[in-house]
Structure prediction request, 723 residues.
Amino acid sequence: MGLCCLIVFLNASAQSLLEPIGQWREHYNNKNVLHLAKGDLLYGATTNQVFTIDAKNNIQFFGKSNGLHEIEIATIAWDPTEAQLIIAYNNSNIDIVKGDAVFSVADIYLSKVYANKKINSIQVVGSWAFLSTNFGILVLDLIKHEIKDTWFANNNRQATATYQTISTADSLYALTEDGVFTTALKNNYIISNQWIKINGYSDIKKLSNFNNTVYGIGNKNIYKLPVSASIYQTSIGNINNAFAHKEGLYIIQSDGLNGTLLNLNTNNTVTNILDKTFLAIPVDIAIDQNAIWIADSLNGLIIKNTETKNIALGGPAEKIRGYGFVNSDYLLAPFAEKTGGFSTYSDVGWKNYTKLNGVYLPVLTAACIDPVDNSWWFTSNASLLHYNIAASSIETISPSALNGNFTQIQFSKDGIFWALQDGQGLAQKQDNKWINIPLPSNYIKNGLKKMVVNGQGQAWIPGPANQGLYVYQSNKYFGTASWKQLNTSKSSGNLPSNNVLSVALDNTGSIWVGTDNGIGIFNCGDISKDICDAYLPTLKNTNGFLGLLLQRESVNCITVDGANRKWVGTQNGAWLLSADGSTIIEHFTKNNSPLPNDTILQILIEPTYGNVFFNTANEMVSYRGFATAGSSTQSEIKIFPNPVPPNYNGPIAFRGLAENALVKITDLSGSLVFETRALGGQAIWNGKSLTGNKVATGIYLVFARDDMGNEKSVGKIVITKGQ
Prediction:
């Protein structure tokens, strides 16, 4: 398997944010660095992905998007003999990365022998790796990439939780739930039933060794085995780990917020190296020549050499739990829950905000961007926060004196600002004046979370507590301001379920409603006098019988791409539907894609390049979609890649087209080679002719025709040798 890595230059201000079409990218919180290993490069692991740092300070990320098979990393280790990285996951699966190949060792994951198979640590000894698991020690053949044997650190061959192994020239030490055991090690093998328990210790949780000297690390004490008297003791916080080296022991400890790196010298004197200025909860160390690398589960990655600095690994600073917003310039992602601030994603990558203009931000729960001045809006409890980027000004607005948190905000197409207030109803701003629009007195008001406003001044709101759908209609377009409640009854909504979870406005003005039993589509006029019933799209199942679209699926969110196709997030992954919902185009899950979790909380689509962002119950990833927003007029398009390199077999994209344009590709003589329709404003060509054969090397002309029948030459594409 080829392994393509995302490379970030630490000294550069930007990175390439454009993935090939159909490719994925992780957007993980990388400040929680848990494991380090020194190999040909420095290797590190956060919760969900692996990274490397080379001598030129380039970072490469490895995740499910470029070859790994899992997330939630348990531990890593470097094999110097075979030059490969061993990655163990929390589900007990194993990946071995060697060069551009990834080998999966799934024996433990697939085994049914033991219920708890967690891999706690890895020790590499020659051509073997000793895997300390919650049932014993597994021996992994690092050449054949297969499990060779199982050892138990006792003399009765009973399963025992083993947390770590280390070895000296002739002995193997195992830290288990029953204490520390040792046995003779010869030619990297042991003789069964020869384990000896080292008594006198009750608090050892880690082992370390250097030059045949073994250390036991407890919460408060460090011992030099087999002596039971401690050589180091702390009264401040707990010892998290220690790393033995030729000059003594590097010790990392923390009280939960303040961390310290110490050096216990060979004469038992202590030197303070780093303190809470850089460290919070240090958990691992790696030594690289004159540099000390520290993994901190709160502060990320720190390097100590001639100077000390924190190495930014990118990504949002927290999991995104707020309701985000995206346009062509920015993705805004509020942290929500208990964390103040937000993240942005733009052409310079991720940037995190916990303060604006020197003031700490409160907990923010939803975001939107003003389409006129590109200023940022957020909800924060019963207030709104407005940030004007150009003026660098921030204001807090309380549009209502009523109690209730604002949960959703939106600018409608006519420029009116709408806000949904839980427990109350709607607030609206136009002509710099705020008005409150309360819910009818007989409506349940507590639990208002989402809304969407269409082009006719109608606000569509999922009703709380299985109340169906609330619809408010202003008097701007239909003349009569009114509320209407829709449910599952005919002529009263025809919803597939009264438990409405999501709403979306598509490119033709239809309202798509997601419930815990599939999808309904509304195309309603004046709700004050007309029946407003949903159309329930159907699909043929595998038996040929018609069934409701996504029936029995909980539709958490619906988002519309540039081709009016629907991206749907459920508890069982993400679905891409055709514009009318009659066809399922894709179904992505954590098992067939880099999605880290099958519970999709929100889907955001960046219109210019078609990047689809999936915020899951775990973290966020994105997928480079095939559709972009279309242009109203046909101008010069962008073609990529162009020229097409030799032996390239991926899609060739034509971006910036008029919506739904007909695209024709001809050779220089004018003979038609290929034609297709744009998905929104982007068309895709596979580099083949209408007969399915790869086209020859040469220059090809691209023509586009809009819906008015206007056709023009919009570009040339060069196919190089190999195509």
Summary: The longest helix spans residues 107-110. The two ends are 23 Å apart (CA to CA). The longest strand covers residues 711-719. Confidence is low (pLDDT under 50) at residues 1-17.
